[in-house]
Amino acid sequence: LSSRTSAAEKEMGGAEQREKQYQAHQGSGDHRGGVTGAHTYFYADETKCDQHMETFLRCIDASSGSSEDGFSAIKLTALARPQFLVQFSEVLVKWRRFFLQMATEQGQAGRTVLEMKLEVEKLQEALANLGIVSKAESQEWFRGESLGTGGTVDLLDWNSLFDSRTKISKPLLIPNRKAGQLEPLLSRFSKEEDLQMKRMLQRMDVLAKRAMEKGVRLMVDAEQSYFQPAISRLTVETQRRFNRNQAIIFNTYQCYLKEAYDNVTGDVELSRREGWHFGTKLVRGAYMEQERERAAQMGYEDPINPTYEKTNEMYHRCLDYVLEEIKHRRKATVMVATHNEDTVKFTLRRMMELGIHPSEKKVCFGQLLGMCDQITFPLGQAGFPVYKYVPYGPVNEVLPYLSRRAQENRGFMQRANRERDLLWKEVKRRLLAGNLFS
């Protein structure tokens, strides 16, 4: 019993510490500081967001005209006020923490998040004892949502419950263990934030409809971890609507995050239950230095895996899970966005073992334009769907992005030297054969 209590306290202590990650911080509104990589946006006003949406619409049109089954990437920080995303992320993390608290008190510390299941009777008693809601009221919650019919509630059921409870006028109170009192879950979620949510969803709706009309897949880029819970939640809402028959909307998972596997498995399980197609791009990650600096300044646990090798393990673990999902249901699609040759080889081997043929187009690959052509071209020639990711914009903004990509891929310069040697070898071969330009 003592070890179980200790584990529960450790679990909850970590959850409360992680919550700091999503609190307001100087620079969260304009989050470009310290980022020399992926382009990020500073919120000016709603008009600017509409202008960004128009730019994304033109990109969708361009993708449609340049290739079949194309992709167009968007960033949600371009479509709403970034501070809203931080606030919404904080709310989502508090609700998840509340679930973890209940689970650890029911003796489930140490399980994976999806394995945690709350017994409904005990949950209702706990809610009543905490003074959050009477047992009769909580019974009405579950009847209204048809949850807990098997006597238990998991995290996905819990999130569904959150959707319905936030639509009522009565503030939802949850316990703050540190303060030892109840606090409103939506204490910082004003009418303006509610409008921000609606505007962002409207813009995503416009983009998704254009993408569907043009035969283009829409890829929502991942951003800093303190925005990501909100970005992922909004992306899933769009997937629920548009991925009924095929994967049109793709979410991005950054595998340098310690929680990447939990995020992937949770969303895959949700897609299974609701019957929509899961679409994902897997990347290693782009904001390592800024993430670690912010964690140190604000005193929360570094969200990044400690080593490059751990990130590789996480990438392959997430990828293997999605490939297994493709094998069993054929209702998932993954873009393996990597410049890492070992990861490409791992993917090809697992596809062969699982019987996933390239012609199904359930697995595709992506590299940046101008980088790692020695990976891209052989994949294309072998019949695999492979894409070049094309950054665009002013040179002074695009060059730092490209330099960051070179920096984040260990061994990139060695591969660049190898690519140069291969190209020079081909030039000499053609010169000797007398067909330089064929």
From TrEMBL:
Gene Ontology cellular-component terms listed: mitochondrial matrix
Pathway field: Amino-acid degradation; L-proline degradation into L-glutamate; L-glutamate from L-proline: step 1/2
Subcellular localization(s) per the UniProt record: Mitochondrion matrix
GO molecular function list: FAD binding; proline dehydrogenase activity
Main location: mitochondrion
Region (Disordered): 1-33
Summary of the function given for this chain in its UniProt record: Converts proline to delta-1-pyrroline-5-carboxylate.
Stated name of the protein: Proline dehydrogenase
Organism of provenance: Grallaria varia
